[in-house]
Amino acid sequence: MIRIKEAFTDMAETLRRVFQAPPSHAAALPFPRPIQGSALLLEATVREIAHRFLPLPSTAKLLTEPPLGVADVVLQATLQAEDGWSRWASGTQVCEMPVFKVGGCARVAVPPLPRSAAIRRTELGGFRVSLRAQREWIGSPATRGGSVAMGRPATYQALNVVLGLPIAIQGQAFQNLPKALGMRYTLGLVRATGENIRNLDILGVYLIPKKGVKTLRHDTQTGRVLLELGAEASGAPRAPFILARKKDDRSYVSSFVED
Amino acid sequence: MADSLRLAYFVAMKEGASYLGGLLLTDTSGIPLDFRYTEPITPTKLQMVLYGKALEPHLKEEVIQKTLLKELKGSPDLFLLPASDLAGGWSGETKCPVLSVQKTQESPLARIGEAFRVSPRELLVQVSEGASPLRVIFASSMDLAAQDQAVQKLLEAGYHMDLTEPLERVLAALQALVHPDQP
């Protein structure tokens, strides 16, 4: 155990001496110039086999000869000893290495690496955009107020125009009237005209204005009377008007009758 | 009862490039109570382009008809207009029933007052005895109850007057006003 400690001590001393003053050399280690080339492709060629198997007839070797005889083996005892440990202890040689001398070399202190990289702030200049004022605007078109709304038209009253047109009045069928009413109407017509009832064909009873009737015409096809009215007819009260035709001369007779 | 009914007949016509309308108010005998007409309205070229097909209905329903109704004193009981105007979808606003009455060649119905429903908006109504029934077309805004009430008023008026004839009078009056020189 003591020997191992001494061995380590010796080795430590050796290493201390070796690295006591480490020389510094400028190592010129140029990188070898890269060689540009190309690798040859592996080519496989087919060749014919130069040898061939030949039949070789052999004969078995017969042990016909008798053995020559066996010499006597003599075992001789010798004393063997292991002296490795003794030789290891005595044969150890300490390598005496020449001590490096302090020459023209100097200790080069390796500057410590900075703990943090220096940051240089570079102000990037902003992009400059030059503005050019464009004043050529498209002017707004002039608007014109064209109203499309339909205005209220003026109205006029022209009742006289309509009253001047013939107005068709539908008559009541005389035969459909109640008998008493028909007799009363007939009596009124006879009294007003003085005609004999047997000479009259009753055409109908019409409800027409009591006043304002300018002309009256009977439409034989439709049985209606066509009236031309004046302005006073509008709103005037209406009364039953009986119209008859004389059988002898085909002339008309008429009369307002009591309702 | 019949005397209180007032029937308004409305006609709007196109004369050249102008539109005008007339409204005749009659009693149940067809006697005119009032007649008003508008001055001719001539739409500009811009209005014709912008209104397009809506120009004529707008003029008739919104401009002419409303103006004439506003001038009337009181509201009529029935508002009658040509069937062509009503068939096109009348959308004018009136406070009274809007309908159209046409003569037909149909066979007379059994009795006066009988009605035959042709469609939800169309009826054949026997107004006078022996004559063909009248075709009555109602505005789409009228429900069945309103149609029945209008038919009763038509029957009351039709007892004394020809219900279709006043429309011809309005048209003739407008023609006479537009062309006073023509006989």
Low-confidence stretches of chain A at least 5 residues in length (pLDDT < 50)?
Answer: none
Which structural class do you get from the secondary structure elements of chain A?
Answer: alpha+beta
The number of helices of chain A is 4
Q: How many strands, what sense, and barrel or not for the largest sheet of chain B?
A: 8 strands, mixed
DSSP strand content of chain A = 15-25%
Measure the end-to-end span of chain B: 39 Å
Radius of gyration of chain B: 17 Å
State Rg of chain A.
Answer: 80 Å
Molecular shape of chain B: globular
Number of discrete helical segments of chain B: 5
With strands numbered from the N-terminus, the spatial order across the biggest sheet of chain A is 2-5-4
Q: Can you give the mean pLDDT of chain B?
A: 87
Q: What is the overall shape of chain A?
A: rod-shaped
Largest sheet of chain A: 3 strands, antiparallel
- The ordered string of helix (H) and strand (E) elements of chain A is HHEHEHEEEEE
Give me the strand/helix succession of chain B.
Answer: EEEHHEHEEEEHH
Give the proportion of residues in helices of chain B.
Answer: 25-40%
Most extensive chain interface and residues per partner: A-B, 31 and 45 residues
